């Protein structure tokens, strides 16, 4: 080899050149694999049972017996259930949301805006909600859950701010809510958000009660005041009639008497 390199010029390209297969691959009738590969494919081939539509009705009938899967006690699920029940007990406003497809990039500003206004967005599954609310006064909310859903916990004073934030996230749809231990629909929540402040309502109630009391006092004393007015007018008329003759006698001049001569 060294002699050939000295006599002949060394080649820049190797003697073996890889060449791409230019023929067309037959997809419909592929080439059969070799024996070892075919053996591996046969061993790895899944075995399927008889489909249900081919089975007789006798084989499909379970005689009313349902197979029950053994439930595993998960301590972490119990911790989440206790946390969820604590949120229900400490929050006077609970809003249930229907979550459409939304990215975490769009959801993070909503989460931050709610947290800034003392509202907390949490996500729980149906099993956690069932564990937390079964046997409590919140058991009726289990019908709202089919899978993982988002819940907002807060105070009723923030409901106006909540609807303003929800306008920025059309993927989060308000379904229902609990206000002061009362389950409300979305329309009722909207009406509740449009109500005036509790202090204004209390002042209006006090004004109505005060007006009713003053009107009652006025109606009760109206007869007495009318009687007093009539008596005062009668006394004035009597005084005027008694003073009139005295004044007349004082004002008449004395006439001279005629004396016969």
Automatic annotation (TrEMBL):
Keywords: Ribonucleoprotein, Ribosomal protein. The keyword Membrane does not apply. The keyword Ribonucleoprotein applies. Residues 238-261 are annotated as: Disordered. Residues 251-261 have a biased composition (Polar residues). It comes from the Eukaryota. GO terms for cellular component: ribonucleoprotein complex; ribosome. Signal peptide: none annotated. Belongs to the universal ribosomal protein uL10 family. Component of the mitochondrial ribosome large subunit (39S) which comprises a 16S rRNA and about 50 distinct proteins. This is Large ribosomal subunit protein uL10m. It comes from Trichoplusia ni. The gene is LOC113493328.
């Amino acid at each position: 080899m060294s002699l050939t390199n000295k006599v002949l010029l060394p080649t820049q390209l190797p003697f073996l050149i890889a060449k791409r297969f230019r023929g067309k691959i037959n997809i419909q009738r592929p080439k059969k694999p070799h024996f070892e590969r075919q053996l591996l494919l046969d061993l790895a081939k899944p075995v399927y049972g008889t489909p249900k539509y081919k089975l007789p009705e006798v084989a499909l009938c379970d005689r009313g017996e349902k197979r029950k899967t053994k439930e595993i006690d998960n301590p972490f699920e119990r911790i989440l259930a206790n946390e969820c029940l604590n949120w229900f007990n400490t929050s006077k406003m609970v809003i249930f949301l229907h979550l459409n497809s939304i990215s975490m990039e769009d959801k993070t500003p909503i989460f931050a805006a709610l947290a800034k206004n003392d509202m907390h967005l949490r996500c729980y599954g149906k099993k956690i909600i069932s564990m937390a609310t079964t046997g409590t006064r919140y058991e009726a909310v289990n019908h709202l859950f089919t899978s993982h859903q988002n819940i907002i916990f807060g105070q009723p004073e923030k409901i106006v701010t909540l609807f303003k934030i929800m306008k920025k996230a059309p993927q989060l749809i308000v379904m229902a809510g609990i206000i002061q231990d009362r389950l409300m629909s979305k329309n009722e929540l909207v009406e509740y958000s449009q109500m005036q402040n509790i202090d204004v309502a209390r002042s209006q109630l006090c004004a109505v009660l005060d007006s009713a009391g003053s009107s009652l006092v006025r109606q009760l004393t109206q007869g007495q005041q009318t009687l007093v007015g009539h008596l005062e007018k009668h006394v004035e008329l009597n005084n005027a009639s008694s003073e009139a003759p005295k004044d007349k006698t004082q004002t008449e001049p004395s006439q001279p008497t005629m004396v016969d001569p």
